[in-house]
Structure formats: structure tokens, C-alpha cells
Amino acid sequence: MKRILACTVLATLTALSGGCGGAVKKTTVMAPGTKPVVRDATREQLLAIYGATSSTVRSVNATLELKPTAGSAYSGVIEEYHEVKAFLLAQRPAAIRVVGQAPVIGSTVFDMASDGDTFRVFIPSKQKFLTGAVAFERASKKPIENLRPQHLLDALLWPEITAKDAVLVEEFNDESGRYYILTVLRGPETPEIARKIWINRADLQVARLVTYGPGGTLLSDVYVSDWQPLAAPGAPAPAPESPATFPRALRIVRPHDDYRLDLQITKLTLNESFPAERFHLAQPEGTELVRVGETPEEKKP
């Protein structure tokens, strides 16, 4: 009986492997040089990779192409806006100024600033000047109105990981690639996920930055790519306190704000010092002041 069973199993395997003309197995041999590279790194090395950017970048001076997309399949309406040329200054701890201009004619589409406590947005086409608390989180029914300057600052000036932070390390694999994920926790008694840092094992560069709020709320999902050297070929190397490379392409996804922002950096300088007045945005005369987040009672004089 055992011999008969063994013969039956052998015959089945032979048939499945193609012995009976009904092959179900296909073998593909990767051509030389096409096999994906997968690099290994220790926890300490991964922290150093992230720290090479988060600990050394004090300011960003960039010219970029910016394209907003408002709405999503979940909200039922998707609005794509024209690409805008923007000039951005960002400086730690929380100062940022972004001026967007229309293509070709160069007129100002928006002027935004934030000091970490208050944001200010001037929209010339509507003659409106919006201001409000950075901590205000109630989203507008018009997703494009949820765009805030500090969202760009958070994507460019990353928070440092200190020795006191609890950090977990894991691997993640799928068809798109293989990654290490650093999970930074907050809270000593009931820990919550503060953020996740994805590092691509193909080049050991940061590929994604995910930020969470209280209760695990997904605040921001930032994809970074196109890492390039700061110094052009033949040019002097960047200062020792500056990173050797920096991403030129970013996608900022804000699910609760219901918008996405694609950035392509075309010109970049790091770690310049800027006077405080470069970040000051005053309300132009003749514009309507809109205090975002105030109730009708609070708006009464």
C-alpha cells in the first residue's frame, strides 16, 4: 500500500512539473544586473541615515514647482490645480515663508507664512488675508483651503530622534521593494506611534515619512525621492555640518485635510541664516481679514 501511495505521489509531481505535457511551473532567470539590490543595515546605521538629514539641516532656501490636488475618491470630487512656481524659505524651529507665482506671467497666486504658532495666507485674486492658529485642526469643506505653510515645513525640516525616544525597527517587503521601518513612539505610560520612517533597502535612503496624531490619527504621509548631491560635479563639497544629499521630489498627502501636494525642487541651498523679517507677512491694505477657526461670536467686535 505504501509503495502504491509513493508511486502515485511521484507520478503527480512528474505531471505537475511537465512530464505529462501539462506544465504549470515557469522559471524565470533574471538577466545579469537586473536583480534588485537589497542592502542590510543595523539599527544604529538606520538612525544615523535619518539623522544625517534631521540633525544637520537648519534651513532650506528652495525654488520649486508645486502642484496641489484637492479632494480624493473618498470625498467624491478631485480637483487638480495648475502647477505653480514657488519660492520657499524655511528655518528651524518653525519659521517658513512660501510665495507662489503663476506660470509665464509671474503674478503672485499666494503668499504664506508661519512662525509655529500662527499662520498667515494672502490670496491676491480674492483680496483675502487669512490668519489662524497652527494648532487649529478643523478641516474646511473646501480642501484647498486646508493648505498650510507648516505642512511644507514639516516635510522639509524633519524632527530629530533623541536618545530618549523609543524606536522600533522592522522589515517590510512587497512587490514595490524592500524597506526598513523605524517606528518612533510617544508617551511613557500608554505609548502611541508618533511617526514612521521608511528607508529603502535598495539605496538606504529615506523614502517615506508618516506622522500620526493622538489615537493613531494619520496626519501626514510624505514620500521623498530623487536624492541628489548638494554639490554639483567639480564644485566644492558642502560644509561639514550639511548633509551630502537631499531629496528633490516630495509628495505630501494630508488625508484628513483632503489634499495632496507634489513638489519638485529645482534650486536648493541649505543652512543659510535669514533675518526674522524675511518671514514676516503683514496684511495688505484693502484686503478682507479672515480669522480661521473663530466662531461667529468671537468675530464680533
- CATH-assigned homologous superfamily: Lipoprotein localisation LolA/LolB/LppX
Mind telling me the CATH class? Mainly Beta
Shape descriptor: globular
**Structural class category:** mainly beta
Give the low-confidence spans.
Answer: 9-16, 296-301
Distance between the termini: 96 Å
Q: What is the helix tally?
A: 4
Q: The CATH topology is what?
A: outer membrane lipoprotein receptor (LolB), chain A
Q: How much helix is in the residues?
A: 10-25%
Using only C-alpha atoms, the radius of gyration works out to 25 Å
Largest sheet: 15 strands, mixed
What share of residues are in beta strands?
A: 35-45%
- How many beta-strand segments? 15
> How confident overall, as mean pLDDT?
84
Provide the succession of SSEs: HHEEEEEEEHEEEEEEEEH
Domain count? 1
By CATH, the architecture is named Clam
Explain the overall architecture.
With about 300 residues, this protein is mainly beta. It has a single domain, classed as Lipoprotein localisation LolA/LolB/LppX (outer membrane lipoprotein receptor (LolB), chain A), CATH 2.50.20.10. The protein is built from 4 helices and 15 strands. The protein has a 15-stranded mixed sheet that branches. Strand 11 (about 205-210) and strand 12 form a beta hairpin. The longest helix is centred in the N-terminal third of the chain and has 18 residues, at about 1-20. The N and C termini lie far apart (about 95 Å).
